[in-house]
Amino acid sequence: MRPQLVIVGAGPRGTGLLERIAANAPELYAGSGLDIHLIDPYPPGGGRIWRQAQSPLLWMNSHAEDVTMFTDETVNMAGPVRVGPTLHEWAGLDGSTFADRQLQGRYLRWVYERALAELPEGIAVHHHPRRALRISGPRDGRQQVWLEGRPRPLLADLVILTLGHLDAELDVEQAELAAYAREHGLVHLPPDFTADSDLSALKPGEPVLVRGFGLAFVDLMVLLTEGRGGRYEGDTYVPSGREPVLYAGSRRGVPYRAKIGYGWTGDRPPLPRFLGPAAVEDLLARKDGLDFRRDVWPLVEKELGFAHYHRLFTAHTERTAMAWADFEEKYAAAGDPAEVRTLAAAAVPDPADRLDLAALDHPLDGVRYASHEAFQDGLRAHIEADLSRRHDPSHSADLGVFLGLLSVYGQLVRLGNTGPWWHGFFSYLASGPPGPRLRQMLALSRAGLLGFVGADMTVTAEDGVFRAASPTVPGFSVEARALVEARLPEPTVGRARDSLLRALHAGGAAETPDGLLRTDPADGRILDGAGRPHPRRFALGPYTEARTAGAFTRPRTGGAAFRQNDATARAVLAFLSASQVKELAR
Questions:
Q1: What gap in Å lies between CA 396 and CA 269, rounded to an integer?
Q2: pLDDT tens by residue, 160-206
Q3: Which of 26, 89, 142, 151 has the fewest C-beta atoms lying within 10 Å of its C-beta?
Q4: Is the N-terminal amide bond of 272 cis, ω within 30° of 0?
Q5: Looking at residues 450-464, what average pLDDT do you find?
Q6: What is the pLDDT of residues 484-525, one digit of tens each?
Q7: Are strands 187-189 and 482-485 parallel, antiparallel or unpaired?
Q8: Quick check: helix, strand or coil at residue 234?
Q9: What whole-number distance in Å separates Cα of residue 220 and Cα of residue 32?
Q10: Phi, psi (5° rounding) for residue 62?
Q11: DSSP strand pairing (231-233 vs 158-161)
């Protein structure tokens, strides 16, 4: 019988895995045939999140030149490099363009079809447009993958989960708010992929509380303004009259930092420096368990500071008061953050040129405004300052930090469970919206269709309404009959609505303290509570402890996702090849 491989999830991760199977099969697969079954109700390539059938108003969050599905020589992997075009090369776009998601879906479909064409003769791919419900089978035998609407399971020698973003059950607070909404005729929209949310209940002219100020909020803002017929004339928004009035806040109380709007010139910081493979090995060797803030964050902070100051001293020497060689030596010897601050104060005259990660992460800490109107002016000034800085090459030390963040994330993937704070911090600094989206926020604010609530936003349900408040503006609150949780669901295994993952969890698959699926960092095999890797089940993606920085990889940055895909593909091919040899020898 031909070997059977089941891949659950045919979006970017499943497509990338298929590309790596095609690249490695000529070397590793000695079998005469192989059937690969792709399970996904959405079209292969884009999957659910990046499918072509969504609003053309929704954009990619990265420049087209920063999106690739193909490996290069910077990826530390055992398999062969198979070069291919970035999104902008494939589509013939200017590299600085923020392409819409429909175009990205077409790119992903092309990558998928190219991977199919590059598979060796005898390897066939079958797409099943269904949902996978559960997996059964012994550790040492064939697996059964049960599909929705199909009475008999698919038999699989190996199963790989590449599920992407997941729907989740509400947490306790969200469930209480949803129940209150049902009882009082209010609207509560839970965390979701915004393009799939039914926004029709958000009525024109009515206030809507929005909790979350990241990318899900940007999508919501677009769909409720331009998506309802409004338009921009320069820096002015011309409403259609069908827009609700949004009141947005979050833990930080500010939008994510804008995408940097210029390219790199000159020498890149030599990364990794303080958080590289050797440092990660030392962390992994600790037997008392790792605490991110205590053990890992000091190395992250040192690495990001090094990237920042390397760029400042090599590209903007006129703003420094010490030779780089002297600064670098003293920086390396500094034993704690206080020493680094003292060194920076002596070597960098302007405080605006010094890196203060805490201030970046919490720009409204301790800040108070006397009125709601004063805060609107203050936050508009914050956004304008961020836009100006992120588009000014004289502040290119920020781009150094961005490269440092990418390097750090590539190393931290090997540690597995780093907790949710780090991913949120990374996204806030490195994965914010395109500059034009922030300019649209400013226009909507001036038009009275977007109000800012503040940091540490709280939402209560009382007197038949939702009420939002923030310590940023003491004494101010805003009422509404609608609340939107503008963020993706947390990718926890225990609360996932996906029945397959729930069944795996119930059957003993291990999770981290933060609820992510535990996997073997070597090849992605799913671990049980005793730390044993399952010989026939693998998992890759944001719901695992080996989650990577984003859905797509920036060219020439080492690509942790590429490295993971390659390792899993090689492990799978080697297993299937050896199994077929054994079968033929019987």
A1: 12
A2: 999 988 888 999 999 999 999 999 999 999 999 999 999 999 999 99
A3: 151
A4: yes
A5: 98
A6: 999 988 878 888 889 999 999 999 999 988 889 999 989 999
A7: parallel
A8: coil
A9: 50
A10: -130, 155
A11: unpaired
Topology adopted by domain 172-256+433-485 = FAD/NAD(P)-binding domain (3.50.50)
Predicted pLDDT of residue 579: 83
Q: Which part of the chain is CATH 3.50.50.60?
A: 4-168+491-585, 172-256+433-485
If you compute the radius of gyration of the chain from its CA atoms, what whole number of angstroms results?
A: 25
The string of DSSP codes covering 435-477 is HHHHHHHHHHHHTTSEEEEESS-EEEEETTEEEEE-TTSTT-E
Pairing between β-strand 123-128 and β-strand 34-39 as defined by DSSP bridges: parallel
| SS3 of the chain: helix, strand, coil, percent, to 5 | 40, 15, 45
Which residue type, as a one-letter code, is found at position 16? Answer: G
- Alpha carbons within 13 angstroms on the beta-carbon side of residue 337 total 14
Strands (E), 192-242: 207-211, 231-233, 236-238
Return d(Cα 430, Cα 404) in angstroms, integer.
10
Q: 4-168+491-585: which CATH architecture?
A: 3-Layer(bba) Sandwich (3.50)
Sole residue written with tokens 């203060």: 356
